[in-house]
Design brief:
The structure is a single chain. The protein is α+β, with helices and mostly antiparallel strands. It has 2 domains: 178 residues, Jelly Rolls (Sandwich), CATH 2.60.120; 148 residues, Jelly Rolls. Helix content is 16%, strand content 33%. The chain contains 10 helices and 25 strands. Strands 2, 3, 4, 5, 6, 7, 8, 9, 10, 11, 12 and 13 form a 12-stranded antiparallel beta sheet that branches. Strands 1-21-18-23-16-15-14 form a 7-stranded antiparallel beta sheet, with no helix packed on it. Strands 17, 19, 20, 22, 24 and 25 form a 6-stranded antiparallel beta sheet that branches. Helix 1 runs antiparallel to helix 2. The longest helix is centred in the first third of the chain and has 10 residues. The protein is elongated, with a radius of gyration of 25 Å. The N terminus is likely disordered. Bound molecules: manganese (II) ion (MN) (2 copies). The site of one manganese (II) ion (MN) has 5 residues, from loops.
Length: 415
C-alpha cells in the first residue's frame, strides 16, 4: 500500500509523471482509499497504453486518460458533443443534434446546432417542445406568431437569445453578410429538430379544394406548392426589418413581450477577477417560462466555484476555451471530464460540481436549465453561513480560516 507520506514525498521530489495539478490534489483529499489514480502507480507500466488508440481523440480527454486520484466510482456519461454529430446538410444550411437518444443522461434538454447561409431559411414550422436558442455567429431574422394572433419579428446577433413557447409557429433566416450559426435547446430531451411540423408538409397533404376554401382563393393557386418539405432551403436575402415589421403588425399589433433577449450584452449578475456571469430567465426575459440560462466567462485558471443547482439538471454548452468539470454524487462518486468548444456537458440536479478553465485563453460556456428561474447553491456560501464552531469540528479547520472562505457567492474565483 502506498501511504499518504509516499505521495507527499513523491510530489515534493517531482518524481511523479502526472500533471502538477493531479499531484497536488493527491497530496491531500483521499487518494488512498481506494488507491486509485496515476499517483498510486509505483510501477510506471501501469500508466502506459500499448493498445490501439486514436491519439487525436484521446488527447482531448486528459482527465479521462489520467483522472485525479480523488475521482472515485462511476457516473452516467455526462459528456457529448456536436463535433461528431452527423450534419444534415441542405442548400441553405445544415443542422446536427444531440438528443436523449444519443446522450442518455440528457432527460430535460435536447440540443441542436444549426447554420443558415445568408438568405438560408429554416422553413415555417412548429413543434411540441419550447425552443430556446443562443446565437454564436452572424445575424438571423426570427419570426413567431403567438396564440392570440400577434406576430413578432426581430433580427438577432451573436450573444442574443430567442424563446418560442410550444406550438407557436416560427421561422428563421440567415442575414448578410454570412448568415448565422446558433444553438437550440428544446425543453424535452427527446425532441428532434428532424421531426417538426412543417407548413409545406401540411399543405401538400390537404385536398386542394380544402386549401381553396380555407384561403378563399382558387384551387389552382396551389398547383406549384412543394410536394416534399423544404426544412432548410436557400432563399433570397430579406429586406429591412422595418418592412417586415410593418407587413406583419396588422390588425392586432405586437405581442406585449419580446421573444428575443440580448444575453451577451446584458449586465453581469456577478463580476470578479476570475470572470463574470450573465443570466436570462423569466425574471428579465419574461417569455422564457421553461428555460433559464447563465452565460459564464472565466479567465485562464479561474474556477466556477463548487456548487449545485436545486431547481433543475444543468445542460452546458462550450462556446470557447478548455474546461475541466468534476461531478460529485452520493456513493461517493466523483468523475472528472474535459470540455472543448462544441461539447455538451450534463450535470444532474443537486449533483455537486465545479468548472475550471484549464486553457490559456478565456473560457465561455452556457448553463441551461429546464426551469423558469436560475438558481444555485454555493458550497462556500453554505460553510460560511453555518455555525462556525460546527463547521470547524466537521472539517478539522480552525474557525479563523473558515472565516476567510468567500461568504458573498463570488460564482467565479478568484474574487
Ligand atoms: Mn423550431
Ligand atoms: Mn453549474
Amino acid at each position: 500500500m502506498i501511504s499518504r507520506r509516499d505521495i507527499l514525498t513523491a510530489t515534493a521530489t517531482g518524481a511523479m509523471v502526472t500533471a502538477t495539478t493531479t499531484a497536488r490534489a493527491a497530496s491531500f483529499g483521499n487518494p488512498d482509499e481506494p488507491p486509485q489514480g496515476a499517483i498510486n502507480a509505483k510501477n510506471r507500466e501501469s500508466l502506459t497504453d500499448p493498445g490501439p488508440q486514436s491519439h487525436a481523440l484521446a488527447s482531448q480527454f486528459p482527465s479521462a486518460q489520467s483522472p485525479p486520484p480523488t475521482d472515485v466510482g462511476d457516473l452516467p456519461q455526462f459528456w457529448a458533443s456536436f463535433n461528431n454529430a452527423p450534419r444534415r446538410i441542405q442548400n441553405g444550411g445544415w443542422a446536427r443534434q444531440v438528443t436523449q437518444a444519443d446522450f442518455a443522461i440528457s432527460e430535460t434538454i435536447s440540443g441542436v446546432n444549426m447554420r443558415l447561409t445568408a438568405g438560408g431559411i429554416r422553413e415555417l414550422h412548429w413543434h411540441l417542445a419550447a425552443e430556446w436558442a443562443y446565437m454564436t455567429y452572424g445575424w438571423c431574422r426570427v419570426t413567431v406568431l403567438d396564440d392570440k394572433g400577434r406576430a413578432y419579428v426581430s433580427d438577432v446577433k451573436e450573444g442574443d437569445l430567442w424563446y418560442f413557447p410550444p406550438g407557436f409557429p416560427h421561422s428563421l433566416q440567415g442575414l448578410a453578410p454570412d448568415g448565422c450559426e446558433f444553438i437550440i435547446c428544446f425543453d424535452d430531451g427527446k425532441a428532434s429538430e428532424f421531426n417538426t411540423t412543417l407548413v409545406t408538409d401540411w399543405l401538400a397533404h390537404t385536398p386542394p379544394e380544402i386549401l381553396a376554401e380555407n384561403f378563399g382563393v382558387p384551387a389552382e393557386t396551389f398547383s406549384k406548392i412543394p410536394l416534399h418539405n423544404l426544412w432548410i432551403f436557400q432563399g433570397k436575402l430579406p429586406g429591412h426589418l422595418s418592412a417586415d415589421e410593418k407587413a406583419i403588425r396588422e390588425p392586432l399589433g405586437l405581442p406585449p413581450y419580446p421573444f428575443t433577449f440580448s444575453l451577451g450584452s446584458s449586465e453581469p449578475v456577478r463580476q470578479t477577477k476570475g470572470g463574470e456571469v450573465r443570466v436570462a430567465d423569466s425574471s428579465n426575459f419574461t417569455i422564457s417560462k421553461t428555460i433559464a440560462a447563465g452565460l459564464v466567462t472565466q479567465r485562464p485558471g479561474a474556477l466556477r466555484e463548487m456548487h449545485w443547482h436545486p431547481q433543475a439538471d444543468e445542460w452546458a454548452y462550450w462556446i470557447k476555451g478548455k474546461g475541466q468539470v468534476t461531478a460529485f454524487e452520493t456513493g461517493p462518486k466523483a468523475v472528472t471530464l474535459d470540455f472543448n468548444p462544441g461539447d455538451i456537458g450534463y450535470v444532474k440536479r443537486n449533483n455537486g460540481h465545479y468548472v475550471k478553465n484549464v486553457g490559456d485563453t478565456d473560457m465561455q460556456y452556457l448553463e441551461v436549465f429546464r426551469s423558469s428561474y436560475y438558481a444555485d447553491v454555493s458550497l462556500s456560501d453554505w460553510l460560511t453561513h453555518s455555525p462556525p464552531e460546527m463547521v470547524a469540528q466537521t472539517l478539522n479547520i480552525d474557525e479563523a480560516t473558515i472565516a476567510k472562505f468567500p461568504n458573498d457567492r463570488p460564482l467565479v474565483m478568484p474574487r
